[in-house]
Hints:
With 210 residues, the protein is an alpha+beta fold. It has 4 helices and 8 strands, in the order H-H-H-E-E-E-E-E-E-E-H-E. Helix content is 24%, strand content 23%.
Amino acid sequence: xxxxxxxxxxxxxxxxxxxxxxxxxxxxxxxxxxxxxxxxxxxxxxxxxxxxxxxxxxxxxxxxxxxxxxxxxxxxxxxxxxxxxxxxxxxxxxxxxxxxxxxxxxxxxxxxxxxxxxxxxxxxxxxxxxxxxxxxxxxxxxxxxxxxxxxxxxxxxxxxxxxxxxxxxxxxxxxxxxxxxxxxxxxxxxxxxxxxxxxxxxxxxxxxxx
Length: 210
């Protein structure tokens, strides 16, 4: 794809009337998913700011049963710009808090809601972790069983849309979601981290998150 065609992707996605849907998300096999994405530079372009907002809007729509059904969306907690065929280091993460045992909504709707420009893991635990149910991906239309081995805890540096630098410490599910999305900007798919010979192998001390 030429530079002008790539430009047209971001132009199309950031049009005021456009809502990102599953047709905008590229699937495994597309070379953009295997490329190392480019850092964004500050100040951001209007398109780069709008793209982040549209990515977050997609995640909110995907988690809203009415909008998800209307738009035919798979539920998602994270999205990376390369999944939209835009090779930039930008991720959106939206992790909802569960209802309590009585079914009441949580005080805080989200345990993590953030857009990260140029995110980078700067420290991590020795301990590994994996989700008991494995991982899925909006760019992968098949189930890939197995433990996706990641760090149990990570420290991430990133920039917000205003160019302010932030450092965030994450553990458990939130850490896994952010690592999954950062993998996308580094050309790594979640199944690259599954042990091919023994997909459900548990290393010593590995945390399996239910």
